[in-house]
Structure formats: C-alpha cells, structure tokens
Amino acid sequence: MNSKSKQDQVISNDSISLNSYEEMAEYYFKYVDTKPFNAYYERPATISLLPQVKGKKILDAGCAAGWYTKWLLDKGASVIALDFSPNMIEMTKKRVGNSAKVIKADLNEPLDFIEDESVDIVLSSLTLHYIKNWNLVMSEFNRILNSDGELIISIHHPFMDFRVFNRENYFLTELLDDEWNTNNAKVKVRFYRRPLSEIINPIIDAGFIIERLLEPMPIEEFKIAHPNTFDRLTKNPQFLFIRAKKC
Which has the closest alpha carbon to 8: 118, 106, 124? Predict the structure, then answer.
C-alpha cells in the first residue's frame, strides 16, 4: 500500500458515517426543508443565536444538503460551505449554484484552505458529534475567525444520548450506532456521545468564551406534525445549542 492510500485509509476511518450520508444525500435534499426535527426544532434555535449576517463571511461547517448555506446567502452573507460527503456537496451545489464556495473537506483535518482571521461566523449544525476529538476542529475554528468572530453550534444533547442508548458510564466518549428512517429504507448512522464537560471544555480551551447555551422547546408546527414527539421534546432535550465568542 503506498503512502497516499494509507493516508486515505486514515481519513476514511476518522470520517464517521460518511457512507451513510452519501446514501442519504438526495433524501436530505428533498426533505430537510420540512423535516420536523430540523425545521421545527433545530433551525429556530440555531437561527435565534445568529447575529445579523448581512455582509458577513460565514463558514457553514458541515453543510449537508445546503439549507443553511442558502438561508445565509438569502440574508446577504457570503458563505464557504464544506462537507465531507461528495454527494452532499453536490446537493449543496444543486441548491445554491455558484453563489457560495462549496468545498469537500473533513473537519478531522486542518482547514488549510481558509486564511487566518478571515471569517466572521462559524456555523456548525448537527455535525460535531461525528468528530471524536474536538481539539483540532475548535483550534481551527478559532484560527480562522476574526477578533470578534462567533461560533454557533448545535449537537446531540449528552443527556439524550446517554439516556436513550442506555449507556452505563456517562463520563465516556464513545461511538454509538443508530438507525434512521428515510423515504426508502433505514440507514445505519454512527456518532459519538460525550459528557457535557467534553463539549464545553474543548471550546473554552481553544480560546472561546461561551455566551449562550440553549435547551429549547420545539415550535408549534412540530406539535401539528408529530404531537407525541412534540410532547417528549418538551420534557426531554434532544439537541444542545451553544454560541461562543473568540477571545
């Protein structure tokens, strides 16, 4: 095996659920606008944490099928969108055309193609639970943000993963297996769960001040679409949202 193949193998091994997202790319493109967990729970909370984006340069870190990329562009931002899935990259390009710089990149690796202090906002929606070690990615986010830059993330809530998957040791960072329903079939997805300290501390250690933490309620449209799930989300958090500022 040559050195390039070895490197590709390492990157592939670090890229949790790459094949799953390759398989789900068209499904995301078709349905993510109205999927209740996205449209009526995750997005309202994330958008509430964003400052005025008009005229800002924003990194959409884990753009998937490009919903946030399109929304940010429509609000007057310039956007760099990246994802590790080639099929998701194609879906984002299909959604926004040439209006954004759309790049295939893995957050397990340095973001060498982005200059120091050249970005105003990093937005990472439901992505970082696929990254085992946050030290590099948080350091890179801090490096590329300007002196007043902001980081907005949404991730799986540590309480939810610990409780739903019946784990024995809350303090472990561990890989979990799940199955998600799509319009065609169930898709196996893998991601990491970690304790709250392993979410907060890497952000602080990278040079950020945490300004806001949200455990929001779903909006009323979720209740109309899925009343039973709506009731559960009003009692048990699914996602965690953080806004941090570079210091």
Answer: 106
